[in-house]
Amino acid sequence: MFLLAYIGIARVSVDTLKGNNVVMWAYSDVKVDSVKVFRADTMHPKESPLLLGVLSPEDTAFIDTLGGKAEYILRTFVGKDSSDTDWIGVGQSIGIAPERRSPPPSEPTKEVTEKPQGKKAMFFDTKKLNILIAILFFMAIFFYLLDRARKDPNIFIRRIAGLDVVDDAVGRSAEMGKPIMFTTGIGDIDSLAVLAGLTVLKQVAKRAALYEVKVLVPNSYPLVLAAAREAVKEAYTEMGRPDLYNENDVFFLTTSQFGFASGMSGMMNRLRPGAVFLMGLFAAESLILAENAYVSGAISVAGTTSIDQLPFFIAACDYTIIGDELYAASAYISRNPLEVAGVKASDWFKALSVALIIVGVILATLSQINPEFKGVLEAYERLFSMGR
Amino acid sequence: MQRQGPIITVMVTSILTVALFFLPQAEEVQTYLFIMAIVISGFAMLIGMDSLILFHMRRVQQGERVFYSATLLTVFFITVVWGIVDWYRFGSPFNPQASFMWLFRNVYLPLDATMFSILAFYIASAAYRAFRARNFNSFLLLVSATVVMIGRVLYAQIIFPIALSIFLLLMAAWLWKSSRRMYGGEKAVRLSLAGIMVVGAIVVFYPVVFKFVGGSIYGLTDWILNVPQNAAKRGMILGLMFGGVAFSLRIMFGIERSWTR
Questions:
Q1: What is the pLDDT of residue B163?
Q2: Helix (H) and strand (E) counts for chain A?
Q3: How confident is the model at residue A6 (pLDDT cuts 50, 70, 90)?
Q4: Residue A225 belongs to what domain range?
Q5: Among A residues 43-72, those touching chain B with beta carbons less than 8 Å apart
Q6: What does the CA dihedral B90, B93, B98, B102 come to, rounded to 10 degrees?
Q7: Number of helices (H) and strands (E), helices first, in chain B?
Q8: Which pLDDT score, from 0 to 100, does residue B27 have?
Q9: Residue A279 covered by a domain
């Protein structure tokens, strides 16, 4: 293969993985706005290829589940310009010279394995320095508060109604002799919302062990299933009731979004649980689950970080944990000072960001009144921009 | 080690992933980690299948809801075998020429679409419960939701003044009725109050608000979506980001370990 000339792309390769084709690429120094991946096969000729996806500049790979024999092309967009790579087949890879339209006549063609030279060779991406500083600053606050929590465990955390009701919901289920249903939604284990949901699951399972209530946990991803089983088992063990733990109460349903909604709705209507907890990552199935919880007569407590689904939960559920309250849920229920310190750190950083926003608003207003402030405003904006 | 192993693994891989974000030279390591995650997920699917099959097989053995469990197991094995046959014949069951795609298009997709369609009815029932003016906050929700809903349909410019007039008349009727307690039987006073309410609202509220938002219901809808709604949303996004970072640190450094033993 030869060095070719495309905007924004330094290297492309296509491999197969478990019947899927994985298109992977690396960017050159030019910051692209978006990337389109096209596929050509027997059904889709190269003249009218199949658009597989429009991806953001953060993406560096695409899994084509259609698999099979196919060729791929990447189209990058930079402002109004767009540029296509060459067609690349499965098992092939091409290296591309950064931002060079064509190889100089005197220069011999190079092999694809060659690393891009120039700015690309730098060890640390200085464009992301501000992010690194922010992370380090955040970590400093985090560890300071952690240290403080070790010395003085009495840290104030404001009341969250949706979490205060956990005891009532479990108690109600115990009185009714009904099980509790808990789901972390349709996210995989790499989702923070799901991990936060699992922390709440452990706290709920602890209370369920105390009241001897059955906890049913349907899962949509196997890795989440494994983690959920560990969380519930650990909760029962910590409460001194490992005998109550039944592995089959934490089970796998399906990875299909609406299949999962259908399965859970069916169970809610058949089993009529005393309480339903929807804590994790949800999408369009959120309202189906919430409404079925209402119809089944259960107390419904929901919490998600999906902003678009929150209105549905607020409308349909008895209690809703809004946004980042879900991350604080475990700390709130357990009152573990070290966990509460983590919640406090995010509060401190939120306060700091509000202060920075106010400074930005003042500068923006001043720059409208007096053009001399425009330079200050631009410098201030640059502090928070990546890649300038 | 059974306890510490997963925590150490999480700590090392998460710190490595954060570090790789700042190191452009290490893209290959990033890609390698990404592929490793896919491979692990693939193997984890076996745990899911094990849970699903054993759960339903036991129910069949115990004679508990046999029909549903037997149906699930039958369909499961038919789908798996069909997929494997087409994978062998075409390289992938999702190859456009594979007969498995018939199953996908004519069974799976319609079932999926049916569940999605039911959402419309759930939205209606949830809206019926949510859009009741129980207090001032829910009243605000009701008004803004009504305005946005009208502003998103055809002929909104015609519908909105009618809807607004009906709303103001209802408000005037409510005022006329409730003012009995305040002013006794003074009908004239109550009528005057109601009239002032209607005329005042139409004269003052309507032109002023419409001028402010660009002269149309569409402008008012956009204003609600872009200003108050967006402000609240951005605040929540900001909170989510910082909350997410703090939560990640708790997991990275083993403070939060509910997901493991």
A1: 77
A2: 11, 16
A3: low
A4: 161-335
A5: 43, 60-61, 63, 65-69
A6: 180
A7: 11, 0
A8: 77
A9: yes
Check if B36 contacts A (Cβ < 8 Å): no
pTM for this entry? 0.73
Question: Looking at residue A294, what is its pLDDT?
Answer: 93
Burial A312-321 (b: 16+ CB within 10 A, else e): bbbbbbbbbb
Would an 8 Å CB–CB cutoff place A134 in contact with chain B? no
**One-letter amino acid of A81:** D
Cβ–Cβ gap B250/A342 under 8 Å: yes
B242/A350 touch (CB, cutoff 8 Å), yes or no:
yes
- Assess if residue A141 is contained within a domain: yes
Q: Is residue A255 assigned to a domain?
A: yes
Shared domain check, A174 and A230:
yes
How would you label A216-225 residue by residue, b for 16+ Cβ within 10 Å and e otherwise? bbbbbbbbbb
CATH at residue A167: 3.40.50
User: Where a domain ends, among A335, A351, A374?
Assistant: A335
Task: Judge whether B135 is closer than 8 Å to chain A, CB to CB.
Answer: no
**Residue A80 confidence (pLDDT) above 90:** no
| pLDDT of residue A79 exceeding 50 | yes
Q: Do A196 and A56 reside in the same domain of the chain?
A: no
Domain boundaries, chain B: 1-64, 66-130, 134-249
For chain B, say whether A316 makes contact (Cβ under 8 Å).
yes
